[in-house]
Specification:
mainly alpha, single chain, 416 residues, Growth Hormone, Chain: A, 0% strand
């Protein structure tokens, strides 16, 4: 049962690792599966090599559906019951994948996992927004992401180790256990942050009206689209990482190490962002990081053509390290900027922001991944194209901070 809203909030030292654990289920459910994809494809009779990528994209498909449900649901019944419901669905999806005897059942289980894990992913944003705003919100989310990034750093190695000891089905058993721990910790320690007087009715009409309101807010929509553009090529990378590292570059058992190094680059940058954002602001850091990543990708694409589609491994790693540092400066900031004007509708607002950005990124990122042909042309070109798209969306959103008549920027934007 949810604790009353008057219950004192958790201290940051416990709150950050708790919400990091909850949102880390997303990374765990994706990255730990990467080394197991060939074995899953072989055991479940996958014919086309690239079809096994759907084990990854199915989770994001489920998330795009679940986020639009759990955000409004959390506005109606509270943050805690919504997260509890999602964790139960996630664990049910894990059981489906454990006992799957066909690829179709596996994908259905993965979609259910995505629906379930969308609850902590989207409701945590509302949970934080209930208690924080502006740069403080961005700072806390950056520190959370810094803790969270430990998971994708070690998840592929963990998945490879579990698969070696007990087979790929045991990986889903570990997912189940981690979700159960998060469920109990959250149930016992986290107070409810949404008092009953602030709860909103749950109806398709109310959800639709609120979604329209969110879409009409230029700042929220612009940064949501920018988030989608940033994540699309990143999703393509996640879907093809095992093929690139093991098939193209022949890294073998060292794949989790190289993947972890790149994930750590994102994590370090995200953690550093928690400090930089207090000095420079979210908008300036976001524009700078996106510009640098796009320029680096233009150079990288030119070099890819010079090397007939496959960069030398050291150059490929250097390029991704630089781009992922930039991405780490973007993840916490873009979400916080999109949520900034949505405090009065945080639950539905978080749902629309997350769902729309996912709906932008999933089909585009999956398409880039599916046309993977053993070269790097598609992946690096995606970083160029979507980088330009993200910069355009951010520029359009930033114009929403300015008043209609000439003069200084809106006072409310000074903290961003």
């Amino acid at each position: 049962m949810s604790q009353p809203a008057a219950t004192p909030a958790l201290r940051t030292g416990e709150f950050v690792p708790l919400i990091a654990l909850l949102i880390s289920l997303v990374a765990l459910a994706i990255d730990a599966m990467l080394p197991a994809l060939p074995a899953i494809g072989e055991d479940l009779g996958v014919v086309h090599r690239n079809d096994v990528q759907f084990v990854i994209t199915a989770v994001f498909l489920g998330m795009s559906v679940g986020q639009i449900v759990f955000g409004p649901l959390s506005d109606r019944i509270g943050r805690k019951p919504a997260i509890h419901a999602g964790l139960v669905l996630f664990m049910a999806g894990c059981l489906m994948s454990i006992f799957a005897r066909s690829f179709e059942v596996m994908i259905a289980g993965r979609v259910l996992q995505g629906i379930g894990v969308s609850a902590p992913r989207v409701v945590v944003m509302a949970l934080v927004r209930d208690q924080y705003a502006g740069r403080q919100m961005a700072r806390l989310m950056s520190f959370t992401m810094g803790v969270f990034i430990i998971v994708p750093t070690i998840a592929p190695a963990l998945g490879q180790w579990i698969q070696f000891l007990s087979g790929w089905r045991a990986i889903f058993a570990v997912f189940f256990a981690v979700a159960a721990v998060g469920f109990l910790w959250f149930a016992i320690r986290q107070p409810e942050t949404l008092p009953s007087e602030r709860r909103r009715p749950l109806s398709p009409r109310a959800i639709g009206n609120t979604a329209v309101e969110v879409v009409k807010i230029r700042i929220a929509l612009g940064y949501t689209l920018a988030s989608g553009c940033v994540f699309a090529p990143f999703l393509a990378y996640l879907s093809t990482a095992q093929q690139i590292f093991q098939d193209v570059y022949g890294t073998g058992a060292l794949f989790p190490f190289y993947f972890g190094v790149l994930a750590l680059a994102v994590g370090v940058a995200t953690f550093v962002n928690g400090r930089l954002v207090m000095q420079y602001g979210m908008r300036k850091l976001s524009r700078g990081a996106m510009s640098l990543a796009t320029i680096a990708s233009v150079v990288g694409l030119g070099l890819t053509f010079a090397f007939d589609g496959v960069l030398p491994f050291w150059l490929f790693m250097g390029y991704l390290l630089f781009v992922f540092v930039c991405v780490g400066l973007l993840f916490g900031n873009l979400g916080a900027l999109a949520m900034q004007p949505l405090g009065h509708i945080a639950g539905v607002g978080a749902a629309v922001v997350a769902s729309l950005s996912t709906l932008v990124s999933v089909p585009l990122g999956a398409l880039v991944a599916y046309i993977f042909d053993g070269t790097l042309y598609a992946l690096i070109a995606a970083y160029v194209v979507f980088g330009v798209g993200a910069l355009a969306a951010m520029k359009w959103a930033d114009e929403g901070w300015m008043p209609k008549r000439r003069g200084a920027p809106l006072k409310a934007s000074a903290d961003l």
